[in-house]
Design brief:
Number of domains: 2
Shape: flat
Distance between the termini: 103 Å
Oligomer: single chain
Mean pLDDT: 73
């Protein structure tokens, strides 16, 4: 009996544990998964990517991620050194975000390092990775680009098509078209990094790409002497001279028609991905222990390029400077979209019906209520009341007793008076 009494509570506790549903990890517990990598010399093995379309978080092999992003952000036909500088920028940016978690988690409580859009870098695994991009990433995988011995955020943007090397350098941002201009004038990837990120130290850089072979000098050929024709021997004495042979006429060939050349249409230039869109200045570094910020697919899909608003959102922690910075960009984009969106249509038919009903009630009150209340008697020939008789006299109704018929016409939603109804004779 004593054992039965002890077994009943234990069985109840076990049953309650089995029936209790498993809860998803809280944002605080999920936060421990991000921001734990700390190496500044070896790239991380994986990176967590937020998928904007679904709100899921994918854990991706880091080198595979860099190759895919480079294929979306740079142009595969650019010079080798331009692609290598892009590989370093893409790798460093993602590496920095892995080292410095900004506090983002999805709706399921999973933390992530980067967005798959131009809010961070464009990543799309459904599209191919090009061989030239993969080669640039492999060649620079052991290359380090650091400031003060640490990995830094290598922000970049498309820039202007065909701009010169370093034309728009601002000290914190690389311009993709400018890297191609640098590659065309013989700059190496390490030199390109130094142009756009002053103070960077590039170590273990690959040797410069093999330059184009110099033209081989054409040898001078010795002229061949023209042979002199041998004269024919004189005819024998007494022999009749042989008349010269008349050459047969050569037919003139008919010239083939020359095809009309088609105009050459220059295709529009291929555009790079554009890097981090909407940044007018480098964001501040994230706090070492940020508060988790939940992001849904709907929130991420509304991120567009916009100017930075002045006031930070009041709902975010005051110390979370990076999230405040990025939220200002999102807020400005949402406000710009709201201003451009069409206003909801005003139900014009209801406004017209309301105005007609109001005027009809006023007309009935004016015509019938006052005479009935005061006991006025209506003249036998007064069909309209109020002394207006259809007698075709000038002193009766206007315009020779013409009848005015009220018709409902269109009422503009922005009219000054919604109760106006158009009248037509």
């Amino acid at each position: 009996m004593h054992r039965l009494r002890l077994a009943c509570p234990l069985a109840f506790v076990l049953l309650a544990a089995l029936l209790t549903p498993l809860s998803s990890p809280s944002p605080t517990s999920a936060a421990g998964e991000c921001g734990s990598y700390s190496s500044e010399t070896a790239p991380p093995p994986t990176i967590r990517v937020f998928r904007t379309a679904t709100g899921a978080v994918d854990t991706v092999d880091f080198r595979t991620y860099v190759k895919n992003v480079l294929s979306r952000e740079w142009i595969s036909s650019w010079t080798t050194e331009s692609l290598r500088s892009g590989a370093l920028a893409v790798k460093n940016y993602a590496w920095y975000q892995v080292l410095h978690w900004r506090g983002y988690v999805n709706a399921a409580g999973q933390c992530f390092d980067v967005f798959d859009s131009t809010r961070d870098q464009h990543y799309d695994p459904s599209r191919p990775t090009y061989a030239t991009m993969a080669a640039a990433v492999d060649a620079t995988w052991g290359t380090l680009a650091q400031k003060g011995g640490r990995i830094f955020a290598t922000y970049y943007n498309a820039g202007q098509p065909y701009e010169a090397c370093g034309a728009n350098a601002n000290g914190w941002q690389m311009f993709q078209w400018g890297t191609q201009g640098c590659g065309l004038i013989g700059k190496t990837a390490a030199e390109i990094m130094a142009i756009y990120y002053p103070g960077v130290v590039v170590s273990a850089a690959p040797p410069a790409a093999t330059p184009a072979p110099s033209p081989t000098p054409t040898p001078i050929t010795t002229p061949v002497p023209t042979p002199v024709p041998t004269p024919a021997p004189p005819p024998a004495p007494g022999a009749s001279p042989t008349p010269p042979a008349t050459p047969a006429p050569t037919p003139t060939p008919t010239p083939a028609p020359t095809p009309t050349p088609q105009p050459i249409v220059t295709p529009p230039p291929q555009m790079p991905g554009g890097g981090q869109v909407g940044l007018a200045a480098p964001p501040p570094p994230p706090p070492p222990d940020p508060e988790p910020v939940v992001v849904t697919a709907a929130d991420a899909s509304e991120v567009k390029a916009a100017a930075i608003e002045e006031a930070p959102p009041a709902t975010l922690p005051g110390t979370h400077r990076v999230v405040e910075f990025e939220h200002r960009v999102d807020l400005a984009a949402a406000r710009a979209s709201a201003r451009m969106a069409a206003q909801p249509a005003v139900p014009t038919y209801w406004l017209v019906a309301r105005a007609a009903m109001k005027q009809l009630v006023a007309e009935l009150l004016e015509r019938w209520s006052v005479p009935m209340l005061l006991g006025w008697e209506q003249a036998p020939d007064d069909q309209l009341g109020r002394g207006n008789v259809l007698d075709r006299q000038a002193h009766g109704l206007e315009n020779g007793d013409g009848v005015w018929i009220a018709t409902v016409g269109p009422v503009a939603p922005d009219a000054a008076d919604f109760d106006q109804v158009l009248f037509r004779r």
